[in-house]
Write a structure and sequence with these properties.
By secondary structure, this protein is of the alpha/beta class. Helix content is 39%, strand content 13%. This is Amidase.
Length: 456
């Protein structure tokens, strides 16, 4: 099992390793076959130069490698957002604030990570730059055919899972950090959206977009959040038995495949043996999420507003599956959009009242294990019926992967996905979540849950 960021930076700061030596290991991983299609652009020589600076080892991130999702601005580089439609866009004049904060803390950028075009899918495929295959960040290679990595922060996840980066800077609009975390045995933290600036990134839905990170441990997630949000997480010594935890029913437990259902049930048993008090909560309000997503919801409406001019010029260059989802927003009237915002606000208030007496909720991050890339890849040079069948499977898979995670975005909440599977099993994520500004509580419970699962 690879060291996490916290362990590695201690080795560097004690002189037992060096930022340069660790960078060479990261570059070797980035060049390996396991990392194929994980990057759209690498920055190896620049990374070597920065890692060699003596002062960098004393900073919080100790000169260690970080990947940057392709939708964030990096000074002097274009920001393609996983698309060829932005190939002629001017280069960025400055770093996005999130990138600046990582650099200031001592991160060294190793490359731009691949992603779903314009971040509009939870599956992780990209027809322009290839699709990286899932890789278990705790236990290594997955057996059998190549599996989807989850999206839209697909390359960010693979860069961390394979050892090419210690932090994968990404975004989360409906689950784009937590879905790839679950499918690759990683930790993904979606903070309350307002805590990290979204400036300097290609937006998907400004109402829902959140900037965050993929890491190898919860303590790394805490550190990454502190850097990105420019705040300190308030430490809390309360043990696992001191928190009020609940498992929501309704939407979250529907259509679980047998492996996810088994691992989730075993995880709850492990946590109860460790002293956790876990109750069941019906939470029927979650089924109302479907009404908030009618016609593509906020994501379709807001993405179309940003893309409509670009579509008129470069529409044929878009991934057809992405383009079709964006264009759903063209039919939403301004009155419908305002109604949707009001409906969401009322739903959020109802959910906040329901969740006032619990500290965090536990649910499977996604209800299925990763399917094969081949099962959802576009059918090329085949007849229309086969193409339609493959597209239907893609959209069915996409809806399942986004189902649980998107509730938290619509709630303007915070959520942590951490691995709960054992060695030799398909990766499964456990999601801890709550409403806005419960970030510190969710992270602290995550630390205690991670400890309990490590002892099983």
């Amino acid at each position: 099992m690879m060291n996490d960021l916290d362990t590695t930076r201690q080795l560097v700061q004690r002189g037992q390793s060096s930022a340069s030596a660790e960078m060479e290991r990261s570059i070797a991983s980035a060049q390996s076959s396991a990392c194929a299609h994980a990057f759209t652009r690498t920055m190896f020589e620049e990374a070597r130069h920065h890692a060699a600076q003596p002062a960098v080892a004393r900073l919080p991130l100790a000169g260690l490698a970080v990947s940057v999702k392709d939708l964030f601005d990096i000074e002097g580089q274009p920001t393609p957002a996983g698309s060829v439609a932005l190939a002629h866009a001017p280069v960025a004049r400055q770093d996005a604030p999130a990138v600046t904060r990582l650099r200031t803390a001592g991160a060294v950028l190793i490359g731009r990570s691949n992603m779903v075009e314009f971040a509009f899918s939870g599956v992780g495929t990209n027809p322009h730059f290839g699709t990286p295959a899932a890789w278990d960040g705790r236990f290594g290679a997955l057996p059998g055919p190549a599996l989807v990595p989850g999206g839209s922060s697909s390359g960010a996840a693979i860069s961390v899972a394979t050892g090419a980066a210690f932090i994968g800077l990404g975004s989360d609009t409906g689950g784009s950090l937590r879905i790839p975390a679950a499918l690759n045995g990683l930790v993904g933290f979606k903070s309350t959206a307002r805590l990290v600036p979204t400036a300097g990134m290609v937006p998907l839905s400004p109402t829902l977009d959140t900037v965050g990170a993929l890491t190898r441990s919860v303590r790394d997630a805490v550190l990454a959040h502190e850097v990105l949000a420019a705040r300190r997480v308030r430490h809390n010594p309360v043990p696992l038995s001191g928190w009020r935890l609940a498992v929501p029913g309704a939407l979250f437990l529907e259509s679980l495949d047998s492996h996810v259902a088994h691992v989730f049930a075993r995880t709850l048993q492990t946590l109860r043996r460790a002293g956790a008090h876990i109750t069941e909560m019906a939470l029927p309000e979650t089924t109302d999420v479907l009404a908030l997503q009618t016609g593509g919801g906020l994501t379709a409406a807001e993405s179309y507003a940003w893309h409509r001019q670009l579509l008129s010029q470069y529409g044929p260059q878009y991934d057809p599956r992405v383009r079709s989802r964006i264009e759903r927003g063209a039919s939403m009237l301004a009155a419908d959009y305002l109604d949707l915002l009001r409906t969401r606000q009322h739903w959020m208030e109802r959910m906040q009242r329901q969740l006032a007496n619990v500290d965090a909720l536990l649910s499977p991050t996604v209800p299925i294990v990763a399917p094969s890339i081949a099962s959802v890849a576009p059918a090329r040079h085949q007849d229309a019926a086969q193409d339609a069948e493959r597209d239907a499977e893609f959209f069915r898979t996409n809806a399942l992967l986004l189902r649980n995670t998107s509730v938290v975005n619509l709630l303007d909440g915070c959520a942590l996905s951490l691995p709960c599977h054992q060695q030799g099993e398909w990766p499964v994520g456990l999601m801890l979540w709550h409403t806005a500004l419960h970030d510190d509580t969710v992270l602290h419970i995550g630390l205690r849950v991670e400890e309990a699962l490590a002892r099983q």
